[in-house]
């Protein structure tokens, strides 16, 4: 069974996930972070349950436009970083 891919801003760490082995729990405690995504693996049978790619700039802007507070904060950080980097590099 392929792991389910979830949009970053639709991912709810406190919403329980179920594995077909019978385990279920909140995914937040079982995340593994990688360069471009995080995944959630079943602690009982090691099946990958969820894949959550980090959001693109466009996804963040889209989520911010719908009022997602995490996205709005993230967007502010991105813009802040861009201002700072621009000054350093140009
Ligand atoms: Zn399992």
Structure description:
- This protein has helices at 57-65, 69-89, and strands at residues 4-5, 17-18, 24-25, 31-33, 37-41, 48-53.
- The chain has two domains: 4-53, no CATH class; 57-89.
- It is built from two helices and six strands, in the order E-E-E-E-E-E-H-H.
- The strands form two sheets. It has a four-stranded mixed β-sheet with strand order 1-6-5-4, with no helix packed on it. A two-stranded antiparallel ribbon has the order 2-3.
- With 90 residues, it is of the alpha+beta class.
- Strand 5 and strand 6 form a beta hairpin.
- It is elongated and about 50 Å long.
- 33% of the residues lie in helices and 22% in strands.
- It binds zinc ion.
- Zinc ion binds at residues 19, 21, 23, 42, 44-45, 47.
- Residues 19, 21, 23, 42, 44-45, 47 line the site of zinc ion (ZN).
Quick summary:
The protein is an alpha+beta fold and 90 residues long. Helices cover 33% and strands 22% of the residues. A hairpin with a 6-residue loop joins strand 5 and strand 6 (48-53).
